[in-house]
What does this fold into?
Amino acid sequence: MKKVILMSLQNVWIGNSPARYQLLEKLEDRGFETYVFVNGHLKQKEKFPFVHHVVNISGMRNKDIRKKIKDISPQVVIASTREDVSGIFLLPWNMKKTAFYYYNLEIYTSYVSAEIKRNNRGIYWLEKMAYPYNKMKEILFTKKIKAFTIQDGMRKKVSKKFYICHNKTILIPNSYIFDKDKIDGSVGKGVVFTGGIARWGLSDQLYRLEFVKKTPVTFAGRIDSYYWKQIAKLKQTNPNLAFIEQQLLPEQYTDYIRQFAVGFVWYDPPKDDANNCYMGLASGKMFKYLSLGKPIIAMNCFGLSHEIRKYNLGVVIDDISQLDDAYIKIMEKYAFYQENVIRVYKNRYDFNKTIKPFLDCMEKDIEGLR
It folds into this structure.
């Protein structure tokens, strides 16, 4: 059986990363035996039957990780972020019978948050000083891989500005598998924002929700404790807003969103945070809403607003105070927006289709290495 290793060393549970777990599912469909390298244990592994083997690298040195990879002798190794690359960046140069890929999920930049700078200047400067060394590892890794993937053309250009590019680049939006059975046709009620409230995404903009007076909006997911004072005030002044801290399995997450009418996509990162500022088709929350037939309201964000306007997937707003009017506009023409969402998603974003060029490339490369 063909063996594939997916490096997943970023501190993200695989259940919160559809780009990873859907890829693993498709690899199993193609007859691969799957290995996932994680920094710890894979929580609720039984929920991911397409993960055949888990390798816990906690306490392992980089040379031990490299040895483990060589011992498995995989046909394919896939990295997703610079954390995955750091310890294995030279392997593509000497493992000639293995195809390496950079299935990129984050553009690695020198940006370090203002919060870290304020609260821990030691870590701030350590991150800044380590960046050139870590970036060089990423460059060396990318030079010898078979292919590079990123979400869209805009992010491809941004990645190139940070020295990561490849002559075989495949664009794969951070989308979900389209399943018409999960679209029940009901309208639902209210607006939902999922994925949690974090400073990397919203900076200090949460207070602007005070201008949303009519629309029922639910914020669900992990909530940074930094925002609890602002949330307590909003609960008093804006009873139409709800805040729910939760972490759900993929199927529970799907069922939860289905009860709402509209998804809310809100990013307002610092302008020098290029990975998040140029979000584009890397927005997992946008694709989750669309995959369930939900129109969206989105703040004007690089790469998102053009797509939404072009295909009539919802309404783009320039200020949070416009959310009430945007919700009314969608609800008045809900069938129109929902029909557009379903048609466009099925034809343009369905992960079953968008992942195929990458999988075909992989199969062809493996044949060439035999």
In short: Residues 191 and 217 are 5 Å apart (CA to CA). Residues 121-143 form the longest helix (23 residues). The chain is about 40% helix and 15% strand. The two ends are 14 Å apart (CA to CA).
